Amino acid sequence: MLDGHKRVIDYLRISVTDRCNLRCLYCMPPEGVPWTPHQDILTYEELLRLAEIFAGLGIKKIRITGGEPLVRRGLTEFLKWLKEVPGIEALSLTTNGLLLAEQLPGLAEAGVGGINISIDALEEERYRQITGGYGASKALAALDQALSCPGMNVKLNCVPVGLNDDQLPLLAALAKDRPLAVRFIELMPIGLGKGLECRTEEQVRRMLEESFGALKPVQGPPGSGPGRYFSLPGFQGRIGFISALSHQFCEHCNRVRLTSGGFLKTCLQYERGADLKSLLRSGAPDREIRDAISGAVRDKPASHHFRDGAGGQDLERHIMSQIGG
Fold first, then answer.
1. CB neighbours (10 Å) of residue 236?
2. Mapping DSSP to helix (H, G, I), strand (E, B) and coil, where does residue 23 land?
3. Quick one: pLDDT at residue 67?
4. Looking at per-residue confidence, does 195 or 76 come out higher?
5. Helix (H) and strand (E) counts for the chain?
6. DSSP code, position 236
7. Mapping DSSP to helix (H, G, I), strand (E, B) and coil, where does residue 183 land?
8. I want to staple 191 with a disulfide (CB 3.0 to 4.6 A). Which of 156, 264, 310, 319 is the partner?
């Protein structure tokens, strides 16, 4: 599937819920938000129908997100169905890891080949300050369990927000004795992220090089997408950076997002897209839904404008947990 700028769109992120068991500073306020009523969330059957239509249009990779996707009941069975959709070559999931240990066997059996685990601090009190709850040790144990799962591609994601500066070398050090990609993701100025301090790739690199030595560019692991990867002396794993602001990669963007409420988003900064849930529930045929998807993808913006403050009138107003990341 080509967008209006001749980019190949073959990657779909599906949010299965806006609910989460944490309250990360950049994602959700401490008091939480009103949850989307269950009847307004796409059913698994609706998600599967859309996945089949997307696959027919050229989507090959699907990543499951939330909120926290593992809080939704019946997810493993849905993933088994999803993996069997003709054309879907890769299925992965992003999680905070707190519910992962008990669900990992089922995820592996369902065909999930990649798991990204979000951990922004290793010290429990600092973890609580950032996420609103305790669980750093539980998430780390789940990460090690995932690494022991044959064939599973495991990455650790961290968002540097200033408050966790001292934690960044500790997280990077996890890649020393593990075949792990530890990735530092620049904070996107969306929702609550607008009011937080953003650490750039250059700032984080300086912190890590002071602790470990020079970072040397290397090829990324499978499914690394826009990440830039580096090796460190004596490290088994890799250090990665996803720097949508300081190293904008919009010209190579290959993804779109489906919110849990059934809205197709083509760029994080903008609210433009297509309301697929209304089409589904109005009895629209697959052809009409396919045309709506194709039209939204054709209108996918050339780039975001977070750094220059431009963007027009249709800027995203939802917080990250409602979008799906």
1. 12
2. coil
3. 93
4. 76
5. 10, 12
6. S
7. strand
8. 319
